[in-house]
Structure formats: C-alpha cells, structure tokens
Amino acid sequence: MARYDLGMKPASNLLESIFVRLERLFGWNRNYLYGVLNGWFVSMGDGFFNQSIVLSSFAASLGASNSVIGALPAITVGGWLLPQLLVASKIRHLPRKIVIYQKTAFARTASMIFIVLSSVIFSNNHTLLLVMFLLGLLINSLASGVSGLPWFEVAAKTIPAAERSRFFGIRNLWGGLLALLAGFLVKSILASSLVFPFDYTLIFALGALVFTLGWNVYGLTIEPPDPPQDPSRFRDEVRAIPNTIMSDPGFRAYVMYRVATALSSLADPFFTVYALRVIGLPKASIGNFLIVVGIVAPLSNWVWSVVASHFGSRRIIRYALGFSIAALVTALLMPKGAGDWYALVFVLSAVAQAGLNLGNANHILGVANPQARGRYIGTVNTLVGIAVFMPVLGGKLADAFNYQLVFVIGAMAYVGTWFLAGKLRRDV
C-alpha cells in the first residue's frame, strides 16, 4: 500500500484483516475508517480523562484549590490550542502533515505513562502528586496541540466536504457509546476496594491505553501531498493575524464567537466540585455522572449531525449555547441534597459540548481559505488558547465569594455569546 512512502510500517496481518472487514461492512474507504476509529478510541479515552468530572474530582481529592481546579481547562485546552500558530508556520511547506502527527504520538503516550507512574510513586505525598499530575497534563496537551493542526489538515484533505458532517457524527455517536463504557468502568473502580489514589491510577492507565490506540491508528492515514509551498516564519504568522481576521468577515465573526465562548466558560470546570463540596454528593457519584453523559452524548451527537445536514453549523452553535446557559441555571437551582438529580446539569452540559464540538469543526473547515487553512486554524486556536485561562479567574472568584456568583457570571456571558453567534455565516 502507499503508506510506505510516509515512512510507516504496514499494519499487522491481524489488524489488516480487521480493517478490511470494517471497510466491507460499512462501505468506508481506508482513510475514512482510520479517522472514525481514531474518534472512537479517543472518545473512550476522554471518558477516562473527562476534564470536568474525573480530572477535577481527582484534583479536589488531592486538596487542590478552586484556582488550581480552574486551571485544568487552561492546561488541557489552552495547552492544546496555544502552539498551533507556531505549528502552522513550521508545517506549511511540508507536503504531508501526517508525519508530524505520527511523531507527536510518542510524546503523548509518554506523558500518559508519566501520569500513571506518578500516581503510584507519589501516592503518599498529595502535594507532589498534584504537581506531577499537572505537569503530565501540560506535556500531553502541548504535544496534542502540535498534532492538532496536522489532524485538521489531513482530515480536510481526506474527508470530502459533503461527508464531513456524517464523518464527525459517526465518530461522535459510537465514540460516545465507548465513553459510556468508560463511565461504567470508572463507576466500578471508584466503588471498589482500591484506596485513593490507586483507583485513579487504574482509571488513568485504561485511558492511556485507548488513547495510544487512537493516536496510532490515525497515524496510518494515507495523506495526498500538498503542492509545494514556501516555508513560513512564526513571526510572519503572528504579523498576519490582524490582516487574516480583518480581510475575511466570515472568519472574523467566527473568531469573535470562539473567543467569547472561551471567556464564557469560566464556570464550567466547577460543576463536579460544586456537587462534591456544596451539594454533598459522594465521590462514587462521579461514575454516575459519566454514565449519564455517556448515554446522552451519543444521542445528542446523532441529533446534532441531523441538524447540521439540514440547517448548517451556525444553527447548531446557537442551540448548543442555549444548552450551556441552561446547564448553569440548573446548577444554580439545585438545592443541597439534590442527589442524582444533579446529573441533569451534566446532561445539559454534555448536549451543549457535543453541539459546539460538531458545529465548530464544521464551521472552521467551511470558512477557512483552503490555500491558508493552517493559518486560519492556527490563528483562531491561538487566540482561543489565551482566552481559556478565564476559569482560573472563576476559581479565584469561587475562593473569594462563592460558586453561585461564578455560575451567574458564566450564564450572562453565554447569553452575550449567543447573540455574537448570530453573526456567523449561514452557508457553512
């Protein structure tokens, strides 16, 4: 097969036979199959490493302050977004971007192993374990950020525009079911006799395994080469940001909306901590939340994909922002001792996140100039990467005042973002 010219080893005979069977069963071509399997494995990994439920509860169990918990999305999301403009300048001239994705898979896997080993080695020193945990997350998110732009470049070249909504929908639907399975496993592990932090050690080890599978299967993608382009410098990419934004009204509206969404998310990391520290739910309830999210996410992804095919990404985004507002309002209305009813907050949040993920992916691939796709994606992700540090401020407000104030501010910010999203292009 043509993958040899990418410096890649062929899949084993067993894997090859599995791939062939899946191709025949679903009628997918090989690149489509790799992309779908990547989504399934990574979604399951996200179930074990769910930032708003698993990671925040782990940090809270280690005694982390609200400011540190608020920094989790800044590390996991911001670390993923910030490097992308630099990456855009470094990969622009490469005929095949999949090579960069392949090289980062090793660093990402190593960071996962680092987190797992740290939870064993420093199990008796919670302060040091928290530091090592945050360091491992940072390394992983930065390496993931380097691979993020090549992923989009490869997907844009290998998945036709007319098939992207279905492609993302299939990834998210069945990936969500695997995330549901992860939720059941997390619930069982947290309810087992394993003492803290070894219960989380097992959870992180399972997540590391499926993440590694997902990263490596996408590395098998056979990417058509780009036409030759001149190398670009990072300084030139930074200088081009104002002109890139101002010269394209559709892209400018998208950038404003994405930055506003990131700023509005200052309260999102505190749903789980609020449940544990204020509502009074036990740690074992975390597994219930993951299961509920695992049930809702695939269904909502299917609905969002239908909406996308009929109405476009702008409609998805505005609906999803409405669910984000509803999640914050519901959290505010939950009384102490609400019990499992609090899961409704995660239902609304999961529906919102699924819609935003699908809507954002479709919209940026639709508005980005194909001749400068890396610059477009790198620009918006770098600017959003700066804005996602807002939850740190949310944590400080929660420490100084209370969680309810943070939820009110977040809901009001999402209302403003909903109006901004009305300026997005309707034809994408």
Entry summary:
With 428 residues, the chain is mostly helical.
Give an overview of the whole structure.
The protein has a single domain (12-421), classed as Growth Hormone, Chain: A (Up-down Bundle). The protein contains 18 helices and no strands. The model is unreliable at 1-10 (pLDDT under 50). It is mainly α. The protein is globular and about 60 Å long. The longest helix is centred in the first third of the chain and has 33 residues, at 126-158. It has helices spanning 13-26, 30-48, 51-61, 66-81, 84-91, 98-121, 126-158, 164-190, 198-218, 234-246, 249-264, 271-279, 285-311, 313-333, 343-367, 373-387, 390-400, 403-421. Helix content is 77%, strand content 0%.
Structural topology:
Blueprint: H1 13-26, H2 30-48, H3 51-61, H4 66-81, H5 84-91, H6 98-121, H7 126-158, H8 164-190, H9 198-218, H10 234-246, H11 249-264, H12 271-279, H13 285-311, H14 313-333, H15 343-367, H16 373-387, H17 390-400, H18 403-421
Helix pairs in contact: 2-8, 2-9, 3-4, 3-12, 4-7, 4-16, 4-17, 5-7, 5-10, 5-16, 6-7, 6-9, 7-16, 8-9, 8-13, 8-15, 11-15, 11-16, 11-18, 13-14, 13-15, 14-15, 14-18, 17-18
